[in-house]
Design brief:
CATH topology of one domain: Spore Coat Polysaccharide Biosynthesis Protein SpsA, Chain A
Shape: globular
Family: Belongs to the glycosyltransferase 8 family.
Helix content: 25-40%
Main location: membrane
CATH class of one domain: Alpha Beta
Protein name: Hexosyltransferase
CATH superfamily of one domain: Spore Coat Polysaccharide Biosynthesis Protein SpsA, Chain A
GO molecular function: glycosyltransferase activity
Number of helices: 13
Largest sheet: 7 strands, mixed
Radius of gyration: 23 Å
Pathway: Glycan metabolism; pectin biosynthesis
Amino acid sequence: MPPTRPFLVFGVVVFGLLITIVSATATATIDGSQSKQRFREAPQFYNSEECPKIVSTEFEDDDHQDVSLPSSALDPDSVLVCSDEAVHVAMTLDLTYIRGSMAAILSVLQHSSCPQNIYFHFVISATRSNASELHTTISSSFPYLRFDLYPFDDSAVAGLISTSIRSALDCPLNYARSYLANLLPLCVGRVVYLDSDVVVVDDISTLYNFNLVDDKVLAAPEYCNANFTTYFTPTFWSNPSLSVTFADRHACYFNTGVMVIDLNRWRAGDYTRRIEEWMELQKRMRIYELGSLPPFLLVFGGNIVPVDHRWNQHGLGGDNFRGLCRDLHPGPVSLLHWSGKGKPWARLDANRPCPLDALWAPYDLLQTPFALDS
């Protein structure tokens, strides 16, 4: 017998044992529902030395002298959420897209120079009794994360939603971005809104601190080469009282999956109500086809601060019908966005990934059957 034979036999036995273990684990995963997905704990990320220190507002000491207490002396979450030095990120959170959300959170933290100064605001459905499960999922993978969950009353918007070209766009939670100013604490004056199908590969504070000049409410990458007329129906464009909406505005398409929002200006201008008015009109006469995007375009199109395209390399999920593979737009990349029908985790699981899905995979925290605990 050749000398390598015993090692070969040993390897076959070990491999068989691994297959048995993996098969049992895989069976448990397949039999489970989406809500039973398990995620690994992410590494903890720390601030660089240049990061601003988070301090509380001023308090009076026993001698009635104004003093400023460090965040460690108080509840860190309470101090951070209202601090001017905090970076606020808002996302929706549900079990359907939780895997994408976990990857997005990890990417934001990993590429931030001041990750401990980031506060996450997660909007969840108030009508589904899974708040504790979502909280546990986030806390288990990110035990150090500063965040809050905000229940969103689906019924408040459900009656305003019209069917669109893709059923996923009709979910009430998809419209929660219009209600952030009402949901988040009043002390939060600015927020970056992110969809769950993004990966950030740059410092989120760069986007967060973008200059909203001329009292603008919103900043986002604009795409003026897109055919803007296709986002509204012939009924809209043929009605002079409606099409005049854009008469004095150089309106361009922008994607609402990545936005910087001044919440104080939003509240002052009652922009939630303005969006709802267009949704009410849509219920009476069909003026658009594409979910929550057109009302934003009607209210803000041509009146936003344009952000460099690097902050939303969108469309990586393909179109809304087939979700075919797409390439990156020319230029640098700070944020990858799998908007469209195809999601990277679904394509990877189906063994039909697009080339760019490999850029999402390193941020996937799903505990797979092959990730055996040591």
